[in-house]
Amino acid sequence: MEEKQFYQNIRKVLDDLPDNFSILEEQIDIDLQMKYFERAQQVRLKNNEKEYFENREQLFLSEISDERKKELLLSIAIIDDVKAFRTLEKFVSVAVGEIKQWAVLAFQESRMLIQSSLLDEQLVFISTGLGGKGQKLRYYVVFINKNKEILLNAIQQKLLKDEVIFELNKHDGEFESMDFSEGFSTVLAMLPLQSDLKQIFRNIIDECNQYGDFLDDDMIVTNVKIMSRNEILEMLKHNENEQFDDFEEEDETDGD
User: Fold this and answer.
1) Which residues on adjacent β-strands are paired with residue 252?
2) Measured distance CA(25)–CA(126) in Å, rounded
3) Opening angle at CA 97, ends 141 and 26, nearest 5
4) What are phi and psi of 178, to 5 degrees?
5) How far apart are the first and last CA of the chain?
6) Which pLDDT band, with edges at 50, 70 and 90, does 48 fall under?
7) pTM of the full predicted structure?
8) Which domains does the chain have, with CATH numbers?
9) Strands of 21-23's sheet, edge to edge?
10) Is 49 helix (H, G, I), strand (E, B) or coil?
11) What is the pLDDT of residues 182-205, one digit of tens each?
12) Which of 82, 101, 204, 206 is deepest in the core (most CB within 10 A)?
């Protein structure tokens, strides 16, 4: 009952979205995103943006620590100046490792700020662990075999893949990849933000089961991360005595 209410609440938020919104395209761990925004609140309370902006070239110096660079990124991101935007854009192109992910988030903030100023209206920034493209979000879907001890045979694999691609195409979705494992199959795909996820993936299961009844009615759908085999097995074990649909819906961050 709680899951149903949660899903309905998310749908209401999506239905009320303004026309102008931006989706973070890169796949960035949700925990890192949370650290970024928590650290941003701390750094920006100091109101040292001007000093950081004047020292923006430190971003490109190898002797400057990542901690200092993080503070530079967080401060430069909220400066309404094309020079700030171009600095972040340049740094994203050369950064590596975790600091690159911080740079991507800062660059996205800066872009939203510039766009908001030009359009003179508030924009909404949507970020998820798996990212997206344009007005589409990326999802990781787990289809569960009725027989959890076996791998789908070649005919079943082809049928499932064909049905996934067919259903995605009907809803302006994009198929990216598919893997088959003992007990389940996984799909990485993108769908428009306002898609009815449950209905789309339920249609795939229903179609496949007309030709062999080999898929469980349950599924896992998340846009938080690509799950490991152990994580999937643990979730299946935890829920083996109850019906579930696991929808980890998108985290939304206002563009302020």
Assistant:
1) 126
2) 10
3) 35
4) -150, 140
5) 33
6) confident
7) 0.72
8) 26-120 (no CATH), 132-254 (3.30.70.1290)
9) 21-23, 124-127, 251-254
10) helix
11) 999 999 999 998 888 989 999 999
12) 204
